[in-house]
Amino acid sequence: MHRGKGMKFVGDSRVSAERKPFIPKDYSEYPGKTEAFWPNFLLKEWLVGAVFLVGFLVLTAAHQPPLERVADPTDTAYIPLPDWYFLFLYQLLKYSFAAGPYTVVGALVIPGLAFGALMLAPFIDRGPERRPSKRPLATGFMLLAIASVFYLTWESVVQTDWEAKEKMGAISDVEIDKASDGYQIAEANTCLSCHGGELGGASGPSLVGTGLTAEEISDIAVNGQGDMPAGIFKGTDEELQIMSEFIAELE
Amino acid sequence: MLNKIYDWVDERLDITPLWRDIADHEVPEHVNPAHHFSAFVYCFGGLTFFITVIQILSGMFLTMYYVPDIKNAWESVYYLQNEVAFGQIVRGMHHWGASLVIVMMFLHTLRVFFQGAYKKPRELNWVVGVLIFFVMLGLGLTGYLLPWDMKALFATKVTLQIVEAVPLLGPYLKTLMAGSADIVGAQTLTRFFAIHVFFLPAALFGLMAAHFIMLRKQGISGPL
């Protein structure tokens, strides 16, 4: 190997004067038309990138990224599940030959062999042939691996109760006791038409988690506030008391 | 003006060879979809890189709002998604991009594999590519915990159980990742955050640099 002083270059370039093995042949030796990367080909790449980006942004705008309720370590009934691209590994650990006392097989041996073989593929598949049909072993094992990954992922998806899972993870809305006197009184006084049937707000603000005391709520119900006119509440003082306490306790 | 600046820098640092390394080369016909539409399979690597750039940028913006502690993590994500202007889009790009980058990388890997493009003299570049694949999976794994919602916490608990099953080293590895032998909590979140935002991206940048330098040095593989 040449180092430092002895290095020789072609003219003023950075191309070594000595022909080294493995340097690919000049593109002029390839059949067909070549194209300059800059700027011709790069422009086409950008067009492909722009189309891709538009599609990606449409997906992003159409589907809100999921967020479940805040983590609660005490909820042991929750069905755990990894992100979709780990499902095949997760499913593998459910089979009896890879679970319990054999977890090592499912967690380490099988994935280790598969990914190890993937990484060392160039040193295992050493022949000069490049066409898939001329490399039956390499092609066969890869197809087998792809089929296994797809099958395991499919099985995992089928075996999961997605509806129950979604319910368990949903950000819980406040449970409103619609049979309670407070709710009934609010309904009778047309509060719901502005504040929503779930009291979560509609044209008027939400009544959940207001942080106000029952006295303050009574005052607003009778005298109004902002866009809310006075005199909407038409019940008795006793009813006003019950309803205000009901709303003050919502959080 | 730009030319003058370029000349001024070039005079002192001789940056023209650098420019040649990056942009001044020919694209052979067999990888050009304009000539053979089936050559679109050569786009997967570039698209993987493109989404990686999206991930880096959207991730940088996410850290402007995200708070990596168990009291505020979920609140900050909820706030970002529901209150911040375009917060849902930024989080959406990072969330869906994480899935898309795996898909694109998978397709790129299959293209290279079935074309036998990893063969001599490109063995090393294949190995580096597989390492990038592992780093990406690691980024997906650690990023999944950060919103601190139910699926995040319980998926991580499962992951740590699997790690613990590794013979001999298992319990130590688990403690290293979770920050505790038996609690998945505040320590775990900060560790996963550090791994997701500092350790793995650093490894990713190094590996990607090696991947691209090797690609430019050897050129793209010839037609089958």
TrEMBL record, chain A:
Keywords: Electron transport, Heme, Iron, Membrane, Metal-binding, Transmembrane, Transmembrane helix, Transport
Binding-site residues, heme c: C191, C194, H195
Subcellular location: Membrane
Membrane topology value: Multi-pass membrane protein
Domain (Cytochrome b/b6 C-terminal region profile): residue spans on this chain: 27-154
Family, as annotated: Belongs to the cytochrome b family.
Quaternary data: The main subunits of the menaquinol:cytochrome c complex are a Rieske-type iron-sulfur protein (QcrA), a cytochrome b (QcrB) and a cytochrome c (QcrC).
Primary role: Component of the menaquinol:cytochrome c reductase complex.
Protein name according to UniProt: Menaquinol:cytochrome c reductase cytochrome c subunit
Annotated source species: Mesobacillus persicus
UniProtKB/TrEMBL annotation, chain B:
Mode of membrane association: Multi-pass membrane protein
Any one Gene Ontology molecular-function term assigned to this protein's record: electron transfer activity
A GO biological-process term: respiratory electron transport chain
Compartments it resides in: Cell membrane
Residues in Cytochrome b/b6 N-terminal region profile domain copies: 5-224
Gene Ontology, cellular component aspect: plasma membrane
Transmembrane feature ranges: 39-67, 96-114, 126-146, 193-215
Required cofactor names: heme b; heme c
First-listed, main subcellular location of the protein, grouped into a coarse class: membrane
Keywords: Cell membrane, Electron transport, Heme, Iron, Membrane, Metal-binding, Transmembrane, Transmembrane helix, Transport
Oligomeric form and interacting partners: The main subunits of the menaquinol:cytochrome c complex are a Rieske-type iron-sulfur protein (QcrA), a cytochrome b (QcrB) and a cytochrome c (QcrC).
NCBIfam families in UniProt: cytb_ExtP, PRK03735.1
Function according to Swiss-Prot or TrEMBL: Component of the menaquinol:cytochrome c reductase complex.
Protein name per Swiss-Prot or TrEMBL: Menaquinol:cytochrome c reductase cytochrome b subunit
Species whose genome carries this gene: Mesobacillus persicus
